[in-house]
């Protein structure tokens, strides 16, 4: 199915989505502020409770409960709180305790470095091969148009390793270390300073989880260390899966820089975000644990809106897709994860060795898409 929207239709699409965005901006207020403040309290309570249950001598049940509470706390801190606070979604509250300029999260990547790589680069160059590091994290083949090389056979294994150490992988590509290694670049003094800041943050995180809290547990330090390692691993696997579901399943489009123009209209930018994102369907509890990135389409269209509003506006956004005969890519979690992994394996092989699922011919429309100027 090819998509052929006229310039007038693209302008109308942009106006319809602008209206949805403005409706939320006009309505946000006390209930939104109460939501994020309550969530921060819950997250901190879960972390303190989990840490307390992991102190001293304990039963198997208390270890499992403490590890589960700590895992949920870490997921909430990274996904629904940290990611969205650092996007500036709550800056309008003018609360210095919940503001993108002051927030630091339980993650090895320093907040300032993540904001530059994620907010300024990923959301600007969404799914553009060679410019969006979130697309394959700079180590994977992400589109059939990329020439196949034997090294890509290892990408399923690389992807699994990346999932296990996901926060460290993010820290490395937020620093553009992969580009420096591949291109044999010499680090500038500014880049060396960034690396030092990242190493300091990583040391603090490692000390907190693998030295300080185990030491507080006395003779039970091994058990606490195992619980902290388990919570970090589960948080990494979960966040990697959620992000893969939003960017990499079959049907999500990648774009080649040479086919894009820099004079992009608002409607064209919206359309690129719509074609380059996918959602996860499920209950409200799932949306909470994904940081509402289960609404990746809505997030990429409106990255500055409070995340608790994505669920509310999703039906209106989907109606826009329907009116313009666009496919709203949304599946349950298991199906979306399976689709993303299928694509990882398929693109690790030469073209044609493994069939693509949900194949659609979008090339006529992709040639119309452009990159919004800085």
From TrEMBL:
Residue stretches making up the Fatty acid desaturase domain: 62-331
Pfam families recorded: FA_desaturase
InterPro entries xref list: FA_desaturase_dom, Fatty_acid_desaturase
Domain of life, source organism: Bacteria
Name of the featured protein: Fatty acid desaturase family protein
Naturally occurring in which organism (per UniProt): Nocardioides caricicola
């Amino acid at each position: 199915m090819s998509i052929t929207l006229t310039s007038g239709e693209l302008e109308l699409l942009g106006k319809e989505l602008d209206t949805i965005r403005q409706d939320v901006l006009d309505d946000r207020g006390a209930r939104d502020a109460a939501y994020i403040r309550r969530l921060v309290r819950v997250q901190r309570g879960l972390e303190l409770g989990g840490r307390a249950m992991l102190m001293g001598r304990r039963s198997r049940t208390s270890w499992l409960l403490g590890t589960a509470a700590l895992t949920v706390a870490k997921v909430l801190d990274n996904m629904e709180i940290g990611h969205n606070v650092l996007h500036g979604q709550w800056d309008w509250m003018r609360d210095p305790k919940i503001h993108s300029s002051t927030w630091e999260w339980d993650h090895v990547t320093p907040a300032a470095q993540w904001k530059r790589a994620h907010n300024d680069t990923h959301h600007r160059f969404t799914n553009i091969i060679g410019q969006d590091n979130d697309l394959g994290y700079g180590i994977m083949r992400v589109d059939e148009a990329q020439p196949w090389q034997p090294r890509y056979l290892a990408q399923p294994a690389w992807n699994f390793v990346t999932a296990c150490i996901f926060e460290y992988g993010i820290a490395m590509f937020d620093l553009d270390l992969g580009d420096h290694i591949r291109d044999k670049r010499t680090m500038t003094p500014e880049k060396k300073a960034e690396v030092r800041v990242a190493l300091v943050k990583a040391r603090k995180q490692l000390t907190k989880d693998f030295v300080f809290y185990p030491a507080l547990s006395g003779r039970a330090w091994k058990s606490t260390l195992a619980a902290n390692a388990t919570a970090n691993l589960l948080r990494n696997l979960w966040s990697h899966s959620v992000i893969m579901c939003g960017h990499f399943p079959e049907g999500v489009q990648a774009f080649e820089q040479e086919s894009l123009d820099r004079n992009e209209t608002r409607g064209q930018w919206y359309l690129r975000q719509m074609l380059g994102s996918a959602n996860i369907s499920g209950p409200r509890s799932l949306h909470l644990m994904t940081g509402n990135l289960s609404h990746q389409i809505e997030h990429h269209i409106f990255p500055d809106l409070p995340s608790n509003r994505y669920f509310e506006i999703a039906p209106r956004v989907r109606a826009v897709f329907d009116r313009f005969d666009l496919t709203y890519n949304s599946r349950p979690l298991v199906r979306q994860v399976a689709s993303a992994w299928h694509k990882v394996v398929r693109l690790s092989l030469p073209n044609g060795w493994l069939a693509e699922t949900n194949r659609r011919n979008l090339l006529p429309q992709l040639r119309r898409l452009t990159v919004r100027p800085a």
